[in-house]
Design brief:
By secondary structure, the chain is α/β, with parallel strands linked by helices. The chain is built from 20 helices and 18 strands. The relative contact order is 0.16. The structure holds S-adenosylmethionine and iron/sulfur cluster (SF4).
Amino acid sequence: MLIDMLERTLPYPNKCHLPFILYPPGMHRNHEGSEFLKRINLDQQGGDTVLYIGIPFCRTRCKSCPYFISALPHSDQARHEDAFVDALVKDIRNWARFPRWKTGLIRTIFIGGGTGSILGTENLKRVINTVFECFTVADDYEMTLEGNARDFTEDKISYLVNSPINRVSLGVQSFQSEVLEIIGSPHAAEESIRAIRALQDHGFENIQLDLLYNLPGHTMDIWRRDLEILTEIGIKHFTIYLYRIHKDSLQANLIRTGQVPQPADPESPMAKAMYRESREIAESMGFHMYMVDHFCKPGFENMYNHWNWKVYVDTLAIGPGSYSYFDGYRLGTEGDVAKYIETVNRGEFLISSVSDRLSPRVERERYIIFALLYYEIEYAYYESKFGTDFRSDFGPEIARLVRKGLVDIDEERMWLTPLGLEWHLNVIMEFFNPAFWGDEASLQEPNWSLNGVMVEVGARPRSYWLGEKREVFFAPA
Ligand SMILES: C[S@@+](CC[C@H](N)C(=O)[O-])C[C@H]1O[C@@H](n2cnc3c(N)ncnc32)[C@H](O)[C@@H]1O
Ligand code: SF4
């Protein structure tokens, strides 16, 4: 009884705050180059696909960003941008030649990075035109341009509002200059508001923005000022991310040497109040939290995530620093821009790291980890995807989660309880294959973006996050 109560108040020994979703983690160096693709059936009829285009540049390196790839100075005398876009356009064409992509249907497109918006208008146009020339894109597609307010010049905005781009995602982080300075963002505080207003003046409505909370030196007052602007600015979607200090980042070093204050513990009353108030404000604005930390007005849900994670289709990712997923393999393209250009110009694909082919079990685990970002597993949908019953496949895991009060179940689905939502990242670890825990060797492999985080989490033993394996006391019906 006492154990039961304790488990319900503190279900795991350590709460995970690192986003941990690019499952499975362990990828290894690809020594076969483009030949690797011979293992994959790319001649078959294609299906629904999401397309990611990675633009590997930022104006500056923010002090603790896992997505940074390379810097592009304002005065790009060497025309790195043109050389890169020449290669990117070729690469898009080359991928699109495979029957699998030629006959498939692109549901959503995300131009990210780095900073998607950094490309000059002409280059952006070239990339977008190539995508529409080479692929069949669904009539109700969503195309997001992710970027930074600093790049939204009049010229770019007037192209954008008349282009196939129908959603903009801005890395606002904060509307306060003192905060932007501490984290090293490339834009000035007022630039985000200017860019949003300029888009809205052209009738462009589908705008989402990222805000960060629990930053070094952050106070409740500063955060409330950001939330107040959020209520007034008229956007349709926002995300709030807990600021993370990444190992070996400039910010980690500045904190270690006392030049920047340590952010509050994510479990501190202040950090929790920041999160709670954002949820309350979102609700008062008529927004719903349709997936973990993602808020929107009904009808403005992120369709890229929807297709990728909820419907669960293939991802074709083109460009440095990106990850694809198809035919049961994860494939990564490293961020070395010169190597990318050189490889594409040789008529090859830069495939830097690869996973083993996912077993049926790992494939299901991957689906569950993604689907739980939307809080629930529907048994009928699971069965339609995999041909098996979720409850039979994961009986012990479900039983453990029910026992800890982290999920509830009925005849049709399993869903996260409020406690489960609070421990969401630990909950999804219950579906992490035992074979991948403690995989320290993967830390030595090239990793970038959030895959690095994923590998870091998995390199610890299972017991660190989930405690000792417990007996299963009952299996849910
Ligand atoms: C690829 S960037 C977005 C676009 C653009 N590069 C920009 O920052 O303006 C993706 C998002 O990652 C988030 N991010 C960056 N560093 C972070 C950190 N240390 N902790 C949590 N989120 C972070 C930011 O909210 C950022 O907007
Ligand atoms: S937050 Fe955005 S602009 Fe800053 S380094 Fe990361 S990707 Fe680049």
